[in-house]
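User: I'll paste a sequence; please echo it back and then give the predicted structure.

Assistant: Echoing your sequence first, then the prediction.
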Amino acid sequence: MNQELKATILLIITTILAGLGWIFSKQSIAGLPPFAFIGIRFIAASCFILPFCYKQLLTLTSKQCLNAASVGLIMSGALLTWVTAISVTDTLAEGAFISSLAMLFAPFVGWLLFKQKPIRMFWVSLPFAILGLGFLSLSNGYHQSPSQIWFLISAVLLAFHFNFNAKYAQSVPSLVLACIQLFVVGVVASIASLLLEQWPTEISNITWLWVGLSTVVATSLRYVMQTIGQKLTTSGNAAIIMILEPVWASSLSVVFYGDDMPAGKIIGCGLILWSLFVYRGGAKLLERRLRSS
């Protein structure tokens, strides 16, 4: 098996695990408060990663630790709004596609923060994304559900996280950066849960099973496989394959929950998927042309 094929298989499996993570999360918060679930999931996930990076962690300076933790705070906001959306949504499918817009928002955020002008394909793909959001909102007449707003806020915060994470990843090893961020998210979510949520008197074994699957399969294993896959291929190839995540998430939500997907929502999701493909695939084609010229 050649390296490129191996990377493709690993990254496709990664997107399937990410899609399953949406189902695991929805099932988990049926028996646990949302913030408590995020707290348990991410503290446990950081503990799984720690044995692989603790030596590097001990070599970090206080400034590096602070930078990594600050990115974790942004990630905390993104994930707490995301799990809030999960807890109130009627359909995971549209949420998956709205959340995927984070990668399209990221260039615009980078432009605002670091004066990094977006590539031409960003402006070409943006109208499709806006039109897709419009179809999602107008599929049943004008109806802006709270979950759509929470998913959109989460996508914007994830775009901020993407930019700061890329910045500090230059000076902090990837696994260490991930471990610190996951731990910070877990701590922030746990504090939020203690302050804002009431835990049930009894938590069923099936709930703990879903939490375990979410932690081990959809967080730790997914991250390791994604890291390995990205190392074996170019960032452009990896980016295009990762577009599959909302496709798997929405497909699984239809199978598991029978999500209602009228024509308007299908068109909206399709337009968002197309905008991501135009942005990532178009960028890759431009890069090839520049190299060949």
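The chain has a mean pLDDT of 82. Residues 3-292 form one domain.
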